[in-house]
């Protein structure tokens, strides 16, 4: 299931400046995460963005999980 969800995340330099997006649409993953973190429910997001599917939102969450699975974080000298 995880692999199928992550296939919904696409990269294209000509769409949203190459940011990870949902299914090649102009919905960056970061937008979906911002909407969720603001308190919107999946149902509310789907009602506002009719071309999105529930699995798209789950894919954005799974993508965020994968990004957070780093082994170490190092401070870069400024």
From TrEMBL:
Family annotation (Gene3D superfamilies): Winged helix-like DNA-binding domain superfamily/Winged helix DNA-binding domain
InterPro entries: DUF433, Homeodomain-like_sf, WH-like_DNA-bd_sf
Name this protein carries in UniProt: DUF433 domain-containing protein
The species this protein was found in: Brasilonema octagenarum UFV-OR1
């Amino acid at each position: 299931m995880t692999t199928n969800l992550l296939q919904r995340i696409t990269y294209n330099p000509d769409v949203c400046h190459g940011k990870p997006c949902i299914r090649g649409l102009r919905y960056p993953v970061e937008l979906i995460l911002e909407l969720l973190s603001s308190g919107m429910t999946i149902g509310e997001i789907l009602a506002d963005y009719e071309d999105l599917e529930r699995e798209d939102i789950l894919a954005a969450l799974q993508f965020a999980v994968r990004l957070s699975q780093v082994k170490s974080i190092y401070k870069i000298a400024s």
